[in-house]
Amino acid sequence: MSTPLAPVLSAHWDDPNAWTLESYLSRDGYGALRKALRMDPDEVIQTVKDAGLRGRGGAGFPTGLKWGFIPQGPGPDGVTAPHYLVVNADESEPGTCKDIPLMLATPHTLVEGVIIAAYAIRANTAFIYLRGEVVPVLRRLRAAVDQAYATGLLGRDILGSGFDLELIVHVGAGAYICGEETALLDSLEGRRGQPRLRPPFPAVAGLYACPTVVNNVESIASVPAIIANGTDWFRSMGSEKSPGFTLYSLSGHVARPGQYEAPLGITLRELLDYAGGVRAGHRIKFWTPGGSSTPLFTDEHLDVPLDYEGVAAAGSMLGTKALQIFDETTCVVRAVLRWTEFYAHESCGKCTPCREGTYWLVQLMRRVENGEGVAADLEKLLDVSDSVLGKSFCALGDGAASPIMSSLKYFREEYAAHLDGAGCPFDPARATAWAEAGEVR
Fold it and tell me: So what CATH class is 237-327?
């Protein structure tokens, strides 16, 4: 193993009572906050910029640069608008399961990061938008916020610095689309969660039409470690353009699924060594580098560096670093159909390419998977996918099209094996019938 794991965020997940304020303070918790409050806000922003922290929610946009977009001082009308910080904790991407355990195990890491980030962008109100189904996380998070208020870490004049911050934990209703930052803002405002047309971007006109920063949980939770240990420490891990540590979520056909925190740029081959490999007696067939919305990889990509540049160069996206592993017993058509059904169900319906395109992709995929398709359906799948990809209000359309296009690229023969009444060759009932008939498929 050439790349060692780098437990920072996950270092204390298995400690007894790790979620309590007492436990967090015993590990020098909120020490980074005290340090940040002695710095100028612009100095905090510059520190995060120099560290090279990139958004851990999918796109990988530089966090410090996003903070720096917030306009300071009076606007054209002479009025200084309030600033808002919003933490996107609406973790909904299939295969993604890093933010939920982070908030469950060490919620004060996120709370400390929120206070530092809000101080840096000069926001006096912050929101954590949490997925509504995860009630145990909601209780932990609200308990952590209450503890922070009770000890002067939130509220007025935090630690005697003169900085005030109100932190609100807002519970969403379980819509996948609210993971998109502008749909999330609409939901926070009490409207139906639907993506906004941009520009204007949230940094200029976000929550309540005021300057707003929207960051992912892991992005904000990484800030205290950067402030406490410095930029050189952070850049000692990862690659030049993708520095630092991150959480990789391994699920599916692996011996030990779970969260593996490592420097950016580690490969799946190395992570599989830590995870005990693919389940005994089987081999990897295909996998997702960043959740179900990213183009698939195969066993040919085991040595692709899992950083933003490496994965992009290989034809996919790092996304949320949700590595879903599938072995040779999995029907790629069936797996992609399930994802396509998910995206069609979760489409908000605002834009035509996504609303209509995802519906027809499901119909075509079902025909193929059920053995009712013909050869022309494969070209039709690519044609409809192309009509959706890059033409929707948000990335949900891209997420629906990418698995179809990439799976056809690597597994077109498997799609063809389903056509003309053949049906799925991985269906146990069909396999038994073919075996009894003396057929080999």
Answer: alpha beta
